[in-house]
What we know:
The protein is α+β, with helices and mostly antiparallel strands.
Amino acid sequence: MDITKLYQTQVSLTEWLEKIGHPDTAAMRIEDNNKRERLKIIKQIIDLPFDEPTQFSAREVADQSPGFQEFLKMRGHELCALRLIPLKSDLPKLRMRGQSVRDVLVWFAEQKIDPNNYKADFVPHTDENKWSTIFVVNENGIFGEIIRGGHHQLTQGFYTDHQPVAFSFDWNEWHCDTDDSDNREALEHLRAITDYLKVTEKAKQKLLDEKLNAEFAHDYLLGYFETVTTDEFGIWFIDYNRILGKMYDDFSVAQSTQTTTKIISQQTISGQIGNPGIVRGKVRIVELENIATTDFKENEILVCDMTTPEYISLMQKSAGVITNRGGILSHAAIVCRELKKPCLVGTKNATAILKTGDEIELDANKNIIKNS
């Protein structure tokens, strides 16, 4: 999979939410645009490692200021993620990942932005991610997914060699459903990551509260988090989102990722619950290239390989969503939750077993698909 091309076509969660008219879109945009400023504050207080960017104004980049020229000379060969962050709330954030600092300047010029309205974050990047995680810390515990390789596999829902693995920590015991060897390594990694979020000193908790309105449970910082780990850089936190943390304050993997054992035409479909609920309806299988020409009816059940932003209008019409790929905290699963659509993800074979026109019941409370 060409990651550079993927990032040219995929959009941020904020843009997903904007497309469905979510009431928190504006607040989410501000939260997302400022995430590295929050991570910087957390690092200063509890030494949290994060993908700290080299920052310039977009005007400095456009004009090739002396400071930027020095940066280009010293680090122009390094891979980066360039994020153009708007200084005005009504402008979009623009991003490109996986090119060298020097090469990404071609993409920068193609954006035709007013450089007075943006700042440019050059974020260190590597294609050799060892682990990636996405998780929520709430009053119930720590819940999320871990995968070997690139982080886009979790947020965008696209993966090839490895499937996301759900994990949970209920303040007493860790659970991670992998084979024995992977289980030990994954759990060691998860403990190392989440140890950074345990703040036992009350003075530091108070300072984080004063600066970020931070909240804690069992001394762990609450919120939504994303991390990547590489041999080159070690563990990096790449997101801390308080709004998503609030949206998922009742989230629990233990209740939402049971494995299916249900049969359609004598074949098994298994997956994970992206959002609970029970619906009945006719299946409509829709390939990405056929979205524009598909006559999708209200309250049909959308079945596809993986939802992308192009599917949003169909997701809004649908009674529920079933996908071959994707995870419980992928952008698509979050959008289904906000649309209140029952959603089953990561089935591997739904498009092969189900047929357009099949009448089924999707019980995303118990993770059951059956003929209705």
